[in-house]
Amino acid sequence: MTPGAPAGHPARQPSNRGTPLGMDVYYIFCFLAAVSVFLGFLNQYVLRTQTTIAITAGSLALSLIVTGLGKLEVVELRDWVSQLLPLMNLEDLLLKGMLGFLLFAGSLHIDLLMLRNQKVEITVLAIFGTLISTFVVGYLLYWLFGAIGMPVDLVYCLLFGALISPTDPIAVLAIIKSMKAPEQISIQVEGESLFNDGFGMVVFAVIYALAFEGTDPTLPAISHLFMVEALGGIALGLAIGGLFHWLICSTNDHSLELLLTLVIPTAGFATANILGVSGALAMVVAGIIIGNFTRERGFSRVSQHELDNFWTITEEFLNGILFLLVGLFLITIDFRPIDYALIVAAIVIVLVGRIAAVSVPFMFLKRRRKYHPYTGRILVWGGLRGGLALALAMSIPAGYIVGGNHDLRHLWVVMTYGVVVFSIVVQGSTIAPLIHRSRAASCPEVGGPSPQPD
C-alpha cells in the first residue's frame, strides 16, 4: 500500500496529468494510427500517389500548418504537439519495436531463387557499397566542415556516413513494390535494402563504439564488434527460422500458424537486442526461411493467402504510423539559419556517396554479366532513406559540442531529417517515370546466363 493511503482503500494509481490532455503513449499511438489511415484514405481522392509519399507529405503539411498558426498567434499548437511526440520516442519505437515487424514482413516476400541469382550483386552492394558510401560521405563532410570553419572530428563525420548510407528497406520496399519495377532491378533494390540495412547498422554500431564508448580503434577490436553484431545476427536468424519452421510444420491449426509467425518479430527481435547481435539481420534471415521454405511445407494454400494478407496489412499499418511520425517530427526541430545550408549540402553529399556506392561495384560486376540499362539509375535514385536513419541519428547522445558551439546531435538530426524528407518526397515521387521507362526498355540479354558461374 502506498505510504499515507487510508486503510481499506486501494493505492492510488500514478496519474498522467503531466502529459498534454493527460494522454498516455497508447492513446497517442491510437490517434496517430487513425490520422495515418485517414491520410491514406484521402490520398486516393487528392494526391493519388504512393501511400508512403502521401502520408509523409500530408504530415509535413500538418507540421507546417501547426507551426504557421503558432507564429501568427492564431492557435498555439506547436508546444502541445512538441510535448506529445517525444512521448512516442521514435528511436525506441523503431529500433526496438517496429523494425523487427517491418523487416520480417519485407523479407517474407523475397524469392530465394531470384535472390540466389542476384546474390553476388546484392552482397557487393550491401557490404562494399555501404562502406564506400560511408567513407565518401564521411570524408566529404569532414572536408566541408573544415572549409567553412566548423571543424568536426572525422569519426563523427564517418558516423553520419554510416547512419545515412544504408537504403532504408521500410521506405524502399513500400515504394518499389507498388511500382512493379523490372524483376532483375526489383530484386536487387529489395535485396540490397534488406541486407545493407542490417550491415549498415553494424557499421554504425562499430563507429558509435569508437566515438562514444572508448573502444580502441584497433583491427582486432573492430573485427570483434563486427563479428558479434553481423555473424551473431545471421546465426540467430538461422536458429529462429529453423525453430519456427519446425513448429509451424508440426501444427495444422491455421490460427496458431499465424500466431507463431508473430512471435518471430516480437520475442525473436527482442532476444537479438538483449544478446547484442543484429536484430535486423536476424529478422531478414528468419523471414526468408519462413517465406521460402515454411510457406510451402507448413502452410496450406488457404493459409498461405492468410499469411500474405496478415503481414501485408501489418506492414502497411506500421508504415503509415512511421512515416506520419517522420513528417510530424518537423515540429520538434528548432532550425537555425545555418541548418538550411547544411541540409542542402547533406543532400548533395549523400547523393554523391550513393552514386559512388553503385557505380564503383558495377564497374566490376558488369564484367561478369549483362544488366538492364536502367539498373544504375534506379539503384541510385531509388536508394531512399527513411525513419531508420532518423532513429539512428536520434540515438546519438546530446552534449557533444563541435565546430565551435554546435551540438553534434542537433546537426546530425537536422541534416538527416532533410535528407530523409528529400528522399521520400522528391526521389520517391519522381522515380515512377524512371521505372516506367525501364519497363518499356528492350534488353533481350537481361537475366541471361552469366559468362562465369556464380
Explain what this protein looks like in three dimensions.
The protein is about 75% helix and about 0% strand. It has about 450 residues and is mainly alpha-helical. It folds into two domains: about 70 residues, no CATH class; about 350 residues, Na+/H+ antiporter like fold (Up-down Bundle). Strands 1-2 form a two-stranded antiparallel ribbon. The N terminus and C terminus are likely disordered.
Short description:
With 454 residues, the chain is mainly α.
CATH architecture of the largest domain: Up-down Bundle
Helix content: over 70%
Strand content: under 5%
Q: pLDDT average, as an integer?
A: 81
| Number of DSSP helical runs | 17
* Distance linking N and C termini: 68 Å
Structural class estimated from helices and strands: mainly alpha
Strand ordering within the main sheet: 1-2
Query: What is the domain tally?
Result: 2
The CATH class name of the largest domain reads: Mainly Alpha
The rounded Rg comes to 23 Å
Spell out the helices and strands N to C. Answer: HHHHHHHHHHHHHHHHEEH
What are the low-pLDDT stretches, counting only 5+ consecutive residues below 50?
1-17, 442-454
Any idea what the shape is? globular
Q: What is the makeup of the main sheet?
A: 2 strands, antiparallel
The CATH topology of the largest domain is Na+/H+ antiporter like fold
Number of strands: 2
Name the quaternary structure: single chain
